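Pasting two entries for a bug report.
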Amino acid sequence: MVKKRLFIAFNLPAEACRRINRGLEEAARLYHYAGKEFPPSLRWRMAPEASWHITLLFLDYQNEELLSNIAAAMANVAARFSPPIIELDRISYGPQGHPKHMWVNGSTETSAALKEIKSDLENELVDNGVNFKYEAKKFQTHITLATFPQEGDEPLVPLDIKLDPAITFQPQSLDLMESDLLRGVKHYSLLQSASFGGYN
């Protein structure tokens, strides 16, 4: 029985990626001002631009035969919502308290709007016979730009870059993505899309 490691996400338009790259340039300047290289350690793993996305719901390993059930749930949910407005407003470390990533963060309003879609999607997936692990933690819109060790390296350079103006876009669809590990590097593939209400 073939299993696939899946998640449901929003992919980014080209202009959003260009703005994020400018934010990374600002992060590099802050490190250089502090007398450090960027990235500061070979143990930092920078996420390539092609992998940037906003994860809405992680499904982990699912039987391939359930792909149609997942696609049906996504289509039902997407049809009930207009395209959400996604606003990305700062670059910082995350999660708070135990940072191990560099994130682009979504605004509070964005996280609230996406949480509504996520909750509806969770219910619809269960109704379609798809099992997954519920996440108890508060949903926070973010894009992972880098992952680094939590211990053993030098202290992090303070980082809180406000994106002004904020990066704003409206995704046209929910995207079902597959995650593969190729030569030690995560690779993501688009399997299915479900258009929001008003898009075909």
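Entry 2 (this is the one that rendered wrong in the viewer):
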Amino acid sequence: MNQNLLSLKTVIRTKNFEKAKKFYNEILNLTIVEEYDDGSGSRGCIMGFNKENNNAFIEISEIKSTHSYYQPAFDRSLDNDKVDIQIKTDSIDYWVEKLNKIWETRGPIKRPWGSRYLYLRDPDGVLSHLPKLVVLEIKN
């Protein structure tokens, strides 16, 4: 029996579904793979990099106080950096130019290991990083 793990989905409970959906779909260009609404206070969407051959997903979920799964924390912004999301890109400069016009960012910042990171927060305060791995040429 094969015991390999096949995919990863991160779920973000949001206090404002429409703002979060716009951020991940329109600002970060993630593709909506599936949307749902159970009619009793839970709705959301699952997003990925594309519809085919995707093994990493972000689910944006809004759960209202009328739903049995509701927790009061779902209505609050995240107030710490205990959890963050990193999305790798092949062009940090593209994202700097795009995001600086429409979203508050910090960076890019070159990290000691050679990567450059652009930091931004989603509408609920979740810290997102867009790292670009920089290949360093070593000369003898």
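Dev reply: Rendering is fixed now. As a check, the viewer should reflect this: The chain has two domains: 1-76, 77-140.
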